[in-house]
Write a structure and sequence with these properties.
Number of strands: 16
CATH architecture of the largest domain: Sandwich
CATH topology of the largest domain: Jelly Rolls
Order of helices and strands: HHHEEEEEEEEHHEEEEEEEEH
Strand order of the largest sheet: 1-7-3-4
Number of helices: 6
Shape: globular
Radius of gyration: 22 Å
CATH class of the largest domain: Mainly Beta
């Protein structure tokens, strides 16, 4: 006898509900406070299509926690919640009542972290940490290999805690210089898994499709809410609510700043830090209104610890503008008039809060006491 879920899948009601949720998700792009210019609207609807690609991998293609596999939940053409352009993200679905083994080669990437999580953007909008381990605590063999066990019960060696409600593993690999560093090579398996997964069932696809659609709507709503909240401090960069950042899956080693920016073509946003604190990593990135990093494949929209030029006192000044001012540490608006932005300190014991000001491009060199170089 068919289950109710099977009946809904077989007679088409599941597909209809899936499509209805996706259609309703479009209202997040049409919110009255969101910019309505053609670029922001086009990026918004593209954003929904990107969220759907992520959601189908998360809840359909890689959804079986008995046979998990890593996929990337944010990358060059699919982005969520101020995705870090300096990161390589990996994600795997888990069952908190099982146990898993991750094997790999450490590589040379500057920062590596593993976090187990529970919840999801498709349910309560939260992704709560249930266990965490970073590369500082990871035991690695002389040849660069390591093994990490994920389980509810403590385990000798590298161990990552889970709870019964744990349903995901998120891996962050953070590069100082992508061209020079080798990412970790990772493989995951359930320790007591069978030889092969069962064939796809109607019941399983029913649940996966509805969770995927819910993920699109929930994620779009969550970060549209965030962007709306930043409207109260445009072109400023105050500390974010760190508890809120952690509740949606942030790395506990990171101190975050989030805000909106808006500039005319003849203006520049100047972001200054008097002295960069000791830390493993830092970066500053520019996003569109939907909190997607701008296209870092073709535009300089992110500056990090490796690329930045510091001043004689160990401070840094970053400039955001539509045109190259001929000064160091310039980031592009990449055709945008407004958007969001994010600053991160990773592993800083004492974060230093950035200051911001808007300056006319014509007087930028004089204001900063620097002579611009010639630009094309």
């Amino acid at each position: 006898m068919a289950t109710p879920a099977e009946d809904q899948l077989l007679d088409g009601r599941t597909w209809a509900e899936f499509c209805d949720i996706l259609k309703r998700s479009g209202q997040q792009i049409l919110r009255p406070e969101a910019p309505s210019d053609p670029l922001t609207r086009a990026e918004g609807f593209r954003y929904l299509s990107r969220l759907l690609r992520i959601a189908l991998e998360m809840h359909v293609e890689f959804a079986d926690p008995a046979f998990p596999g890593f996929f990337s939940p944010s990358h060059e053409t699919a982005k969520i919640g101020a995705d870090n352009p300096d990161n390589l993200y990996r994600y795997a679905r888990l069952d908190g009542n099982a146990a898993y083994r991750v094997r790999g080669q450490r590589g040379t990437v500057a920062y590596l972290s593993f976090g187990t999580q529970k919840g999801g953007y498709e349910t309560d909008g939260r992704m709560t940490q249930t266990g965490f381990l970073d590369s500082n605590g990871l035991r690695v063999d002389a040849d660069g290999s390591f093994e990490l066990v994920l389980s509810a019960q403590p385990h000798d060696g590298n161990w990552l805690r889970m709870e019964p409600a744990t349903n995901a593993l998120v891996v962050r690999q953070t590069f100082l210089d992508r061209q020079a560093e080798t990412p970790a090579d990772l493989h995951i398996e359930r320790i007591d898994a069978g030889e092969r997964p069962a064939p796809l069932s109607a019941d399983r696809l029913h649940g996966g499709l509805l969770r995927a659609a819910g993920f699109v709507e929930g994620t779009a709503r969550l970060f549209a809410d965030w962007a709306q909240g930043y409207g109260g401090h445009v072109n400023a960069l105050p500390p974010a609510d760190q508890a809120v950042c952690q509740a949606v899956g942030g790395d506990p080693n990171i101190f975050y700043y989030h805000a909106c920016w808006a500039l005319e073509d003849d203006e520049a946003l100047v972001v200054e830090v008097d002295r960069v604190p000791a830390c493993e990593f830092w970066n500053f990135q520019i996003n569109n209104y939907w909190m997607e990093s701008l296209d870092y494949r073709y535009h300089d929209i992110c500056l990090n610890k490796h690329r930045a030029r510091l001043d004689a006192h160990g401070g840094v000044t970053v400039i955001l503008s539509a045109r190259d001012p001929g000064l160091p540490n310039w980031l592009e608006t990449a055709g945008h008039r407004n958007g969001t932005m994010c600053w991160r300190w990773v592993g800083a014991a004492h974060p230093v809060h950035p200051r911001t000001r808007v300056v006319k491009l014509a007087s930028l060199g004089e204001t900063l006491g620097e002579t611009p170089r010639e630009t094309a």
